[in-house]
Every structure is written in C-alpha cells, then in structure tokens.
Design a protein that fits this description.
Blueprint (H helix, E strand, L loop, with lengths): L2 E6 L5 H10 L7 E8 L2 E8 L2 H4 L2 H5 L5 E7 L15 E3 L5 E3 L8 H12 L8 H17 L6 H12 L1 H17 L14 H27 L7 H6 L15 H13 L2 H23 L14 E2 L10 H12 L4 E2 L9 E4 L4 H15 L6 E4 L2 E4 L4
Antiparallel strand pairs: 1-4, 2-3, 2-4, 5-6, 7-9, 8-9, 10-11
C-alpha cells in the first residue's frame, strides 16, 4: 500500500505534490520522493522517512517544473531498509521515463531474469517497481527502435502516448496475452471493480464482437473456430471467479488523513500517545522473550522482531504461529528481512501483551507449557 500522485499544471507543481503527499502519508511512512520536469530535464529528490522530514526548503527549490510525480512508500516488496528503493524510479532510454507505482508484481523475479538474459537490462534493487519501469522502457524501445522521429513525428507520438485510448489498447493487448497463457498454465488475474477494470471488460467485449462479425463467416467456410479472450473468460472449464472484499475504503481513509492534519489535534495527540505506549509495552514484553531480538521500531504501527533463533524461514514461522497460537503475522521475507515477522502495535495494550504471550508460549521452551486462549486451555505438545 503506497500513495502516488501526478500533477500537470500551468505553474510550478512541487508544492502541490508535497501537499498531496502529506494527505497520502497514511498510505506509506517508510520513504517519500518527488520528480519534476522542466523542459527536457528531470529533477528528483527522494529519501527514507516521512514527507515533512524528507523535503526541506532547499530540496523544494531544486524541483522546478510544471509536471511532476510523487510517492510515499509502504514496502510490500523488496527491502524495507533500502533508500535506493524509494521512488520515483528513472531510466534514461528510451526518451527518459520516470515512474511511481503502487502494487505488486507477482512474477517480478521471472521478469527480472528475462530482462537480464534477453534484453541485457540490469535491475539494481529488489524493488518490483524498478522491474516494471524497465519492462515498460523495453517495450517502448522495441516499438520505436530504428525509427528516426522528426518534430511532427515526436508530437504525434506524444499525443498517442497521452491518449487514454492508447493506454486502454495497450492494457487490453497485455490482458489478452495473459489470458492466452491459460491454455498451458494457471493464470491468476487480480483486479478490482474500478473504472479501469470496467473499461477493460468493455474492450474485451468489443473485440469479441468485432472478431465474430469480421471473421465468423470465413472461419466456418474453412472449418476453423474463432476463440477470443472473452470466450476463454466465459468458459467455465477454464475460468473461476473468486470475489474478495477488503475493509479499506480509500475516500474514507483520505478523509481521515485530512482530518488528522487539519482537525482537532488533541485527538491526534491521544492516538500518538497510545501508539507510543503500545511500543513501550512491546519492548518490555520482548525483553523477557529468550532468543528473540528487537530493535526499537521507528515506524508508527509495526515492529519486526528477529526470530531466527527459532526458525529462519519467516513464511513457515508465520504459518506455524497462525496454526498453533492463533496470531496473525506477516513474514519478514516480504520486506527483505528473512527470519523476522511483522507485528502490529496499533491495537490495545491487551492485544499487544496477549499476542506476545502467545508467541512466547508457542516458541520459547522456557515459557509455561499451558496457556488460555479465550476460554480454551491450550497445551504445548511440540517441544
């Protein structure tokens, strides 16, 4: 979960992007960055930390231009401690491209290997966003390689790239290629009922109708059969639809963030004090946890204790704690910290102390052999 913003204006955009990132701060507290364009040159500043700490007056003055992008990072892939993975990312060819990205590429490792082996592109970080940028750059390079563009040609290319139709067609072609792969492998498409998804489905239907109308008569006369992406999606033997609902409501979250910045500050201060108290309680509980190590967390809501003494595989460890102790954690591997797990400290003090007690009971052989989880007495029988 990251926050991204882009602005095209008649005047300087650096302050507009800064203000927007402040409102998006709840979507990422790990790092922040802004890139602007003036003429043919890009200007960029990014670093780890909160927006107010990353950008000083001297940094803002060094970001001229009427076009720009910004991002606040919440690392869900790559290395949470790498300043190099702060966004935006930049490549100089073709044309010069700057990218900010929110989301995850599930096939990032395969794409990274393909970019290196096939296209000789080096990826310098563990961020899947850098992979995405290089995939885009490589496709643009292939499409324009060997074509000398004069000024009218450049203007036409720019118009095409800025057209929403160009983006929709490119997304549809990529979507069709992925659907086609389902003939020989499992394909998972993760989307949401947004306007972009509805446009994609509409384009899929329009393409189907055009192909049927244009080729159905010719295909039948030659004994051939038309198969479009829509047909594959409608084929119950090939496609399964799984609906997942999420608790996040973006407009509500953004309104809450704006309220936190501009509303009654005594409420914000009370929340801050509660989080600080939870952090202190967590540190106190972890000191009695034999074999576990924890550096004082600098973030707002999470801590990443080192539990390699018990299991160096954080995915297995998270599964074990969920099954045995009924504690939900996130594997540290997702943040470039194998052997760690991510714990939330945003609940109550009771949540924090009970969660640590369950983890200690499940892992620490010096802890009591019995524990109550709710009304159920649990006995540790795996040590």
């Amino acid at each position: 979960m990251c926050g991204i913003v882009g602005v095209v204006s008649q005047g300087p955009v650096n302050q507009l992007i800064y203000d927007a990132l402040l409102l998006l701060q709840h979507r990422g507290q790990d790092a922040a960055g802004i890139a602007t364009q003036q003429g043919n040159k890009f200007f960029m500043h990014k670093a780890k930390g909160m927006v107010r700490d990353v950008f000083r007056t001297r940094n803002m003055r060094a970001l001229p231009g009427n076009v720009g992008l910004g991002q606040v990072r919440y690392p869900t892939a790559g290395n949470a401690f790498s300043e190099e993975e702060a966004q935006p990312f930049y490549v100089n060819a073709p044309f010069g491209i700057v990218l900010v990205h929110n989301g995850n590429l599930t096939n990032a490792h395969a794409l990274k290997a393909e970019l290196f082996n096939t296209d000789q592109r080096h990826i310098n970080t563990e961020s899947d966003s850098e992979v995405l940028l290089n995939v885009l750059a490589d496709e643009l390079d292939k499409a324009t390689r060997g074509k000398a563009l004069d000024e009218p040609g450049k203007a036409l290319l720019l118009e095409d790239l800025q057209s929403p139709c160009t983006e929709e067609v490119a997304v549809f072609h990529a979507f069709s290629r992925v659907v086609n792969e389902a003939r020989s492998s499992f394909v998972v498409l993760d989307t949401a009922p947004t306007g972009h998804s509805l446009l994609l489905m509409d384009a899929t239907g329009a393409y189907h109708r055009q192909m049927v109308q244009q080729y159905e008569g010719q295909a039948e006369s030659k004994g051939l059969h038309i198969i479009t992406p829509l047909m594959r999606l409608q084929d119950g033997s090939m496609t399964r639809v799984i609906i997942v609902t999420l608790p996040e409501v973006t407009p509500v979250s953004q309104a809450a963030a704006e309220g936190a910045l501009n509303g009654l500050q005594t409420v914000v201060e009370a929340i801050r004090l509660q989080i600080e108290n939870n952090r202190a309680v967590l540190l106190q509980e972890m000191r009695t946890f034999s074999g576990a190590r924890l550096i004082t967390p600098e973030g707002t809501f999470y801590a990443l204790p080192d539990l390699r003494a018990f299991n160096g595989n954080s995915v297995e460890l998270s599964k074990f704690l969920l099954k045995k102790a009924f504690v939900v954690t996130v594997p540290g591997k997702e943040f470039g910290m194998e052997g760690h797990i991510r714990l939330s400290i945003s609940g109550s003090v009771k949540d924090v102390t009970e969660g640590i007690a369950r983890i200690k009971w499940a892992l620490d052989p010096t802890s009591p052999n019995e524990i109550y989880i709710g009304d159920k007495k649990m006995i540790r029988d795996w040590m």
